[in-house]
């Protein structure tokens, strides 16, 4: 059970209790640190059990509880309501209800503790010396951890008198017949050290912040997005849920005033360059405000030097930004880390795409230098063997990311026989991103930077890359593109979903697009729910392998958009239909990844335990698929609508789509609806 507000989130069990679990990130977290690791409610020494839960919004929920075993539920004389919410802090209102006709006395106890664990160490706990200060006079408990200038502090306050000890707070209460007792428990988190950021919120104002500020912000966010009117049952609710999930997954990095998308709950609750860029590309027609904030933030953090420990190079765009202890002390490469080869070309792609939608020429001029540095990086540092291909090989040999593409698990890049190629590796989709970045960079240079010579050069380089790529990566015996090239130019012959990204970038030769599409929707790659990351029949295939057979909605959204780019509408519709079926079958937030089992085998989408949920680029994937079905594309100062809607969707209306044209509407019907209309 979770509540979330940007980077601050709390995960508990079904009763609302928090206890350390090495297998799960239970606790109150903010900026990659666990500020509460133990938060357990007892009534007269008994643990409590849940009757039901009411998830009001992403940032608040209520638990309805009774003490004791399940056999006591029907005649319980006492019940408890826990109303929990988060903002810049954690707040819990406890209400105890006496259902008897006699006065009742209870001992209410809340156990409290923090281990200040870095979230990436949740499965490998280590002891930290935590200072505890109990203050009954002020009804507060302070938990503090310090390592040099790295300081984290948790302060718990109560609005009513409590007996405070080093392990929690005790309330000895008397309740009148059919009466109630309540207190507000307020948990503020403070970050000291170099940044000196204090996230404490005023105790009296917190409920008002949640009641007005958070709800008003969510309402405004939803109001700014286009309105969907859909004939297909449940689609409007799925759309609204995706927008709400994206609202939840926004945060302000320290010393930055604008909100940017974070990766996903619980493992990627920080700025991840790849996730943020793709989320912005997915949601351009729906929540365009994410893009300029993300572009400015990534430009601010752009690499400026050679640093092997950070995998940093001049012009390179950030892979991730973390605030936990392990990163602060370089225990792992996690604080400011650049180990990704795709973020840099995607930065240029997003800048160009945002201008096409918004007409914001000022931002393009403002970010001219970072964009040119990114384009220069592709050739100066990305071409590691001098053959003109974008490659990666980690500089940080101790704990840098091994595979620095979107499939970043250590075993993700293998051939059909399961053999891993040598480094540096040139995965196919990286070449598509580089091609797209050069073409888009050429447009920016010619139209906004006043540099036609540079534009001509980029266009020549893009054309040469496309020709070279279609020669070296194409596998004529299989009629698909190799997953990668090894450093000697030999193809890594695995059939994988990466080939769909090539359609999205436009690097595929026109006469080969249909063959690529048939693989993507063929039985080896398409599970029925979506396109697998790795095709069946290959040695390394594993339906529960994150990048070796599982299905990612984000991956599928790019693939479907690529298919429509090449006018392969039937195949795109099949993928969109599968992903929407999966999302509606599961209900709630769209997971980051599901297993790649055949749909006919399981009849239900199987979630992976490592999956984030909600995840920004999964929620964004549903929006991108809507835009793809409607065929939304900016053309000058107009919005082009060219629908291709799967059967069963009926009529779709997307109203008030924002862009340089102001606001526009899009209408579409699926083919079966059109046929029925003609028959009538």
TrEMBL record:
- The name of this protein is Amylo-alpha-1,6-glucosidase
From the broadest rank down, the organism's phylogenetic lineage runs: Bacteria, Bacillati, Actinomycetota, Actinomycetes, Micromonosporales
Superkingdom of origin organism: Bacteria
**Coiled coil start-end:** none
Q: Name one Pfam family in it.
A: GDE_N_bis
* Putative glycogen debranching enzyme N-terminal domain mapped to chain residues: 5-185
Instruction: Using the record's annotation, list all stretches that form the Mannosylglycerate hydrolase MGH1-like glycoside hydrolase domain.
Output: 415-585
């Amino acid at each position: 059970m979770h509540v979330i507000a940007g980077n601050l989130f709390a995960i508990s069990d079904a009763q609302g209790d928090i206890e350390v679990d090495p297998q799960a990130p239970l606790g109150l977290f903010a900026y990659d640190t666990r500020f509460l690791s133990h938060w357990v409610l007892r009534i007269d020494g008994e643990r409590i059990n849940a009757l039901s839960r009411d998830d009001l919004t992403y940032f608040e929920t209520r638990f309805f509880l009774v003490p004791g075993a399940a056999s006591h539920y029907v005649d319980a004389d006492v019940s408890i309501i826990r109303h929990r919410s988060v903002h810049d802090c954690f707040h819990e209102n406890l209400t105890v209800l006496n259902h008897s006709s006699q006065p009742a006395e209870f001992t209410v106890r809340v156990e409290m503790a923090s281990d200040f664990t870095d979230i990436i160490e949740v499965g490998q706990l280590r002891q930290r010396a935590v200072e505890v200060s109990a203050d009954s006079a002020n009804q507060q408990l302070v938990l503090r951890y310090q390592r040099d200038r790295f300081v984290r502090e948790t302060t718990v306050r109560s609005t009513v008198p409590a007996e405070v000890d080093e392990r929690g707070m005790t309330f000895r209460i008397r309740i009148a017949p059919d009466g109630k007792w309540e207190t507000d428990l307020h948990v503020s988190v403070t970050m000291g050290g170099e940044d000196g950021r204090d996230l404490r919120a005023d105790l009296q104002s917190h409920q008002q912040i949640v009641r007005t500020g958070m709800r008003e912000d969510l309402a405004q966010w939803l109001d700014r997005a286009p309105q969907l009117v859909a004939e297909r049952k449940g689609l409007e609710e799925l759309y609204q849920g995706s927008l709400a999930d994206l609202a939840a997954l926004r945060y302000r990095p320290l010393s930055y005033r604008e909100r940017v998308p974070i990766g996903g709950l619980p493992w990627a609750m920080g700025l991840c360059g790849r996730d943020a860029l793709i989320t912005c590309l997915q949601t351009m027609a729906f929540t365009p405000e994410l893009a300029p904030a993300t572009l400015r933030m990534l430009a601010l953090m752009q690499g400026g030097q050679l640093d092997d420990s950070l995998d940093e190079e001049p012009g390179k765009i950030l892979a991730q930004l973390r605030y936990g202890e392990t990163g602060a002390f370089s225990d792992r490469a996690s604080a400011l880390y650049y180990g990704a080869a795709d973020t840099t070309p995607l930065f240029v792609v997003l800048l160009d795409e945002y201008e096409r939608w918004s007409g914001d020429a000022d931002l393009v001029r403002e970010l001219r230098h970072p964009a040119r540095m990114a384009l220069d990086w592709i050739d100066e540092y990305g071409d590691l063997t001098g053959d003109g291909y974008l490659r990666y090989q980690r500089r940080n040999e101790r704990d840098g990311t091994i595979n620095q593409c979107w499939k970043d698990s250590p075993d993700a890049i293998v051939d059909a026989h399961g053999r891993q190629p040598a480094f540096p590796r040139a995965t196919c989709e990286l070449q598509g991103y580089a091609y797209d970045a050069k073409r888009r960079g050429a447009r920016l240079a010619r139209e906004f930077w006043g540099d036609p010579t540079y534009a001509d050069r980029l266009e020549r380089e893009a054309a040469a890359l496309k020709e070279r790529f279609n020669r070296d990566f194409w596998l004529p015996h299989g009629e698909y593109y190799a997953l990668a090239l090894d450093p000697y130019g030999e193809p890594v012959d695995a059939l994988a979903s990466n080939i769909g990204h090539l359609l999205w970038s436009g690097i595929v030769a026109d006469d080969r697009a249909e063959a690529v599409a048939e693989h993507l929707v063929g039985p080896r790659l398409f599970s029925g729910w979506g396109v697998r990351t790795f095709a069946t029949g290959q040695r390394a295939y594993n339906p529960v392998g994150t990048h070796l057979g599982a299905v990612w909605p984000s991956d599928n959204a790019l693939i479907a958009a690529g298919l429509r780019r090449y006018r392969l509408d039937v195949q795109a519709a099949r993928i969109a239909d599968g992903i929407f079926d999966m999302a509606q079958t599961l209900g709630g937030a769209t997971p980051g990844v599901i297993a790649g089992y055949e749909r006919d085998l399981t009849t239900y989408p199987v979630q992976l335990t490592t999956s984030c949920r909600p995840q920004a680029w999964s929620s964004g994937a549903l929006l991108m698929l809507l835009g793809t079905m409607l065929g939304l594309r900016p053309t000058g100062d107009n919005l082009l609508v060219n629908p291709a809607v799967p059967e069963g969707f009926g009529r779709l209306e997307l109203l008030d789509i924002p862009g340089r044209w102001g606001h526009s509407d899009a209408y579409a019907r699926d083919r079966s609806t059109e046929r029925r209309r003609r028959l009538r």
